[in-house]
Amino acid sequence: MSGARPLLQVRDAGHRYGDRWGCRGVDLDLWPGEVIAVVGESGSGKSTLLGTLSQRLSLTEGSIRYRAADGEAADLSEIGESAVRRLWRTEWGFVHQDPADGLRMHVSAGGNVGEPLMATGWRHYGRIRAAAAEWLRRVEIPVDRIDDAPVTFSGGMRQRLQIARNLVVSPRLVFMDEPTSGLDVSVQARLLDLIRSLVAELGLAVIIVTHDLAVARLISHRTLVMKDGRVIESGLTDRVLDDPQAAYTQLLVSSILQG
Ligand SMILES: Nc1ncnc2c1ncn2[C@@H]1O[C@H](COP(=O)(O)OP(=O)(O)OP(=O)(O)O)[C@@H](O)[C@H]1O
Question: pLDDT digits over 168-208, tens only?
Fold first, then answer.
């Protein structure tokens, strides 16, 4: 793990829906190249936390500091919308559970991967197409499908295309919301392998929400366990899953073991 200072520093973060807290009191340091899994049962606040950290939901209380590529750390609630939009174009990615939320379903695969490059100033058509073809190869989509739209792709291919669209600009931080659920088990395993190798190769920092502890085990360095909107346990993934301290985590782990 590289980098002497955290990429993301979260203190006492919370998001409130009306008069109910979706998540609250969350502290977290994410280091460059580190993968953190957020686990917990349905309704525990995982998606709300991911939304809050990624600025898709407002921060009702607390603070989130992000250290940008230029080395400057800034409070995300203070930098303004256009700076956050710039982060999305250049430093951040978001992989949705449903590829339709992260892709343009009727635009060609090459267009889906080329668009983010154009948004960062790439202009040369030949180079954009070559970069898109290279990314299709990396995510194991046959390059002869480059002119086909994702509506014609299988679920696994769509998800791999969404990953290519996110990673083509070499982001530093990628948020993932249940990226493998909804796929067949064998497709899931292959996708997880791909995500794991790309994340390691590119040195990405990732926050991944999953209800599947096997996904957390396979892909993450650290795990946060959520219950009722709070992080009730956190630590190295192997420690949390092999030697859970909180009674709730013990239950979560044993319910998986019992199938
Ligand atoms: N748009 C919303 N308006 C009001 N309450 C919401 C909204 N979205 C989520 N909540 C509430 O916030 C709490 C946390 O929900 P959240 O979706 O973050 O949980 P989750 O762990 O991601 O669940 P799942 O695994 O089912 O997606 C729940 O009590 C939920 O009912």
Answer: 999 999 999 999 988 888 888 888 999 999 999 999 999 99
Using the mean position of ligand 1's atoms as its centre, give its distance from the Cα of residue 43 in Å.
5
**Domain containing residue 242:** 8-91+171-257
Cα separation, 49 vs 128, whole angstroms: 35
21 alpha carbon – ligand 1 mean position (Å)? 9
Distance 7 CA to ligand 1 centre (A): 26
Q: How far apart are the first and last CA of the chain?
A: 34
3-state secondary structure (DSSP) of residue 166: helix
Q: What is the pLDDT of residues 126-177, one digit of tens each?
A: 999 999 999 999 999 999 999 999 999 999 999 999 999 999 999 999 999 9
Look at residues 137, 84, 10, 214 and name the one whose alpha carbon lies nearest to residue 129: 137
Q: Which ligand 1 atom is the nearest neighbour of the CA of 22?
A: 12
Query: Which atom belonging to ligand 1 lies closest to the Cα atom of 226?
Result: 21
74-93 pLDDT per residue, tens: 999 999 899 999 999 999 99
Q: Which ligand 1 atom minimizes the distance to the CA of 44?
A: 21
Q: Is 180 in the pocket of ligand 1 (CB under 6 A)?
A: no
Specify if 166 maps to a domain. yes
Confidence at 255, pLDDT banded by 50, 70, 90: confident
- Write down the ipTM of this complex: 0.97
Both tokens assigned to 252: 């979560």
The answer to whether the CB of 46 is under 6 A from ligand 1 is yes
Ligand 1 centre to CA of 38 (Å) is 14
Note whether 149 and 157 are within 8 A (CB): no
Number of domains present in the structure of the chain:
2
188 and 70 within one domain: yes
